[in-house]
Structures are given as structure tokens and as C-alpha cells.
Design goal:
Structural class: mainly beta
Distance between the termini: 47 Å
Bound molecules: zinc ion
Shape: globular
Radius of gyration: 17 Å
Order of helices and strands: EEEEEH
Strand order of the largest sheet: 2-1-5
Number of strands: 5
Helix content: under 10%
Number of helices: 1
Strand content: 25-35%
Largest sheet: 3 strands, antiparallel
Number of domains: 1
Region (Disordered): 66-86
Amino acid sequence: MTVRLVFGRPLPGTVGETRRVVHVFELPTGDVVPERLTALCGSAFGPGELEHLDLIQGMPCVSCLRRTPTPDPELPAGRQEPQGQP
Ligand SMILES: [Zn+2]
């Protein structure tokens, strides 16, 4: 199943500034946006509580980042240097 990942953070005034971290949400494909969104970390937000972001700006939610699926598992995480070369 394909999901879209979107980013959002609580609007100013809904939570303390230190808790305005950017959460990651999985949206089902299609045009229907659920009324309540639950972030990957489990935090849930209702209508009018979230600021939608196209990119992660500011402090990310670490719990969400840990749970974010790897976008493309085919891509190597890092370049492997050959071992034992002079
Ligand atoms: Zn989160």
C-alpha cells in the first residue's frame, strides 16, 4: 500500500513553543483527508490544530523520525569503501 508522508506541527498557541515539533503523518492515498490525524509517534491532532508544512522546518519530532519508513530501500545508506586497499 502506498502512503503519502506529510509534515505538520501544532499551531502557535495550541501547545507550548517547546512542543511545537514537526511531526510526520502518513496519509492514505486519495483526496480524502481524515478529520483527525495521528502522527507516527502517536500524537493525534484535530482540525485547526496543525500547521501543514511541505518540508521539515524547525525542530523535528524525534519519535516520528525514528518511525519514518525509508523512502527507497534500494538506495544504499552510504558509500562502501573497499577494504584492505593500500
Ligand atoms: Zn511526532
